[in-house]
Amino acid sequence: MALSLPAPAAREVVDQLAAIVGPEQVSVAPIDRLTYARDMYTVAIIKHAEGKLEHFPHVIVWPANEDELIRVVKLAPDLGLPVIPFGAGSGVCGGTLPIHGGIMLDVKRLGRIVEINDDDLTVTAQAGINGQVLEMELNRHGYTLGHFPSSIHCSTLGGWVAARSAGQLSSKYGKIEDMLIALRWVCPDGRVYSSPIVPGRSTGPDFDQILTGSEGTLGVCTEATLRICPYPADRRFVAFTFPDVPTATEAMRMMLRNDLRPAAMRLYDALDTMLVGTSGSTEHTQGKSLGDLLQIEQIGNRVRTLAPDLFRKAQRFVAGNAQIANQLELLAKEGCMLILMFEGERELTDYEFEAAVMICERLGGTNKGPKPAIRWFENRHHVSYKMSKVYYNGAFVDTIEVATTWTRLIDLYDAVCAALKPHAFLMAHFSHAYPDGCSIYFTFVTSAADADEAATKHAFIWSLAMKAAGGVGATLSHHHGIGLSKAQYMRDEHGDMMRVYRDIKTVMDDAHRFNPGKMGL
Amino acid sequence: MTAARRRELEEIFGADRVEDTPITRRLYSQDLTALSLVDRRHSADEALPDAVVWPETVHEVSRLLRWASEGKVPVVTYGGGTSLRAATMPSTGAIVCDMKRMKRVTRMDENSMIVTAEAGILGEALQHELRLVGLTLGHFPPAFYGSTLGGFLATRSAGSLSTRYGPIEDMVISLQAVLPDGSIVKTRTAPRSATGPDFNHVFLGSQGTLGIITRASLRCRMAPATRTFAAYKFADWNDGVTAMRLMMRKGLLPAAVRYSDPPETARTFARMEDEPDGNVLVLVFEGHDRRALLEASIAAEIALSCHCTQLGEEAARHWFDHRFAEAYRRSPVLAEDGAYMEVIDTAATWSRLPTLIASLRDALAGEGRQVSLYVANASSVGASVCLTVQGHTPAGEEGKTLQAIWTAALSTIRQGGGTVSYRQGIGPWQIDALKEELGVGYDLLRDMKRQIDPNGIMNPGAFGFDRTS
Question: Quick check: ipTM above 0.95?
Answer without folding.
Answer: yes
